[in-house]
TrEMBL record:
<keyword id="KW-0675">Receptor</keyword>
<dbReference type="GO" id="GO:0071396">
    <property type="term" value="P:cellular response to lipid"/>
</dbReference>
<dbReference type="InterPro" id="IPR050402">
    <property type="entry name" value="OR51/52/56-like"/>
</dbReference>
<comment type="similarity">
    <text>Belongs to the G-protein coupled receptor 1 family.</text>
</comment>
<keyword id="KW-0552">Olfaction</keyword>
<keyword id="KW-0297">G-protein coupled receptor</keyword>
<keyword id="KW-0812">Transmembrane</keyword>
<keyword id="KW-1003">Cell membrane</keyword>
<feature type="transmembrane region" description="Helical">
    <location>
        <begin position="194"/>
        <end position="222"/>
    </location>
</feature>
<protein>
    <recommendedName>
        <fullName>Olfactory receptor</fullName>
    </recommendedName>
</protein>
<feature type="transmembrane region" description="Helical">
    <location>
        <begin position="23"/>
        <end position="46"/>
    </location>
</feature>
<feature type="transmembrane region" description="Helical">
    <location>
        <begin position="234"/>
        <end position="257"/>
    </location>
</feature>
<dbReference type="GO" id="GO:0004930">
    <property type="term" value="F:G protein-coupled receptor activity"/>
</dbReference>
<keyword id="KW-0807">Transducer</keyword>
<feature type="transmembrane region" description="Helical">
    <location>
        <begin position="96"/>
        <end position="118"/>
    </location>
</feature>
<dbReference type="Pfam" id="PF13853">
    <property type="entry name" value="7tm_4"/>
</dbReference>
<feature type="transmembrane region" description="Helical">
    <location>
        <begin position="269"/>
        <end position="291"/>
    </location>
</feature>
């Protein structure tokens, strides 16, 4: 068997068939990346500066914005390099590091979305105990737990890849490194990688999405017992979170499905899904929350008025 040192580099690909448009695609990616950084940076700044926003919902939103900035930063600059300067090779260790960042940050985002669902559940189902249950130290602990959980669950992925020998073909099917993509290039038994990958998907994404759905069952049940006005107000506070949940889980599950059940011949669906999964939540989350949250909207307007004067 060939040693694992046989893979010193991997080849990343842009969007097959659209090579001629690479310059403009990179331009689009660059704009989206700047939008994501600006949007999430603004959310963090406003929540930090506005004392009235130091509530569980917004503190979790702050964490979500930070994760979104990190996830787009771990992939975007490299993708722009690929599209603009056609630098297709990525070192083995750089690939493993990027893979770890993408997967662990995704797990952290999933945990924070679950924490936000719990916050909405407590706020609507036991409003009087909300402040006592979700204290600032507890929120900080939840944030720390999400980081530890994301990092420990995903740490074995690069280790499992590191022990594999790689064959002659080292061309990845995305413009960044994903575990399920890299492991398919190994010329050895990848059963361990597949089983561990499935365990991670079920215990993180599967469990979190199940608990989020469950909390919404309780929220809806509690909301139905309220007067119509109170019900609309209560459910109104959940809309942004529901949007954020869909923005994260739909592309994630879509991408997992495409990898599990093979690629459709001659189609770029997996490439499109992979880029949507990494780009859309960081760009749209700040917009959704900015539009839906009166305090944030008000503060952004004030910021703009200050800069234009």
């Amino acid at each position: 068997s060939v040693g694992s040192s046989s893979a010193s580099t991997f080849t990343l690909i842009g969007i097959p068939g659209l090579e001629a448009a690479n310059f403009w695609l990179a331009f689009l990616l660059c704009s989206l990346y700047l939008l994501a950084v600006l949007g999430n940076g603004t959310i963090i700044y406003i929540i930090k500066a506005e004392q009235s926003l130091h509530e569980p919902m917004y503190l979790f939103l702050c964490m979500l914005a930070a994760i979104d900035m990190l996830i787009s930063t771990s992939t975007m600059p490299r993708m722009m390099d690929l599209l603009w300067f056609n630098s297709t090779t990525i070192g083995f260790d750089a690939c493993l590091l990027q893979m770890f960042c993408i997967h662990s940050l995704s797990a952290m985002e999933s945990t924070i979305l679950l924490a936000m669902a719990f916050d909405r559940y407590v706020a609507i189902c036991c409003p009087l105990r909300h402040a006592a249950i979700l204290t600032s130290p507890r929120i900080a602990k939840i944030g720390l737990a999400s980081v530890i959980r994301g990092a420990t669950v995903m740490a074995p992925l690069p280790i499992f890849i590191k022990r594999l020998p790689f064959c002659s073909s080292r061309v990845l099917s995305h413009s960044y490194c994903l575990h399920q993509d890299v492991m398919k290039l190994a010329c050895a038994d990848i059963k361990v990688n597949i089983i561990y990958g499935l365990i991670v998907i079920t215990s993180v994404i599967g469990l979190d999405s199940l608990l989020i759905s469950l909390s919404y069952v309780f929220i809806l049940t509690a909301a139905l017992s309220l007067s119509q006005e109170a019900r609309l107000k209560a459910l109104g506070t959940c809309i942004s979170h529901v949007c954020a949940v869909f923005l994260f889980y739909v592309p994630f599950i879509g991408l997992a499905m495409v990898h599990r059940f093979g690629k459709i011949h001659g189609s770029n669906i997996h490439v499109v899904m992979a880029n949507v999964y990494l780009l859309v939540p960081p760009v749209l989350n700040p917009i959704v929350y900015g539009v839906k949250t009166k305090q944030i909207r008000h503060r952004i307007t004030k910021l703009f008025q200050r800069t234009t004067h």
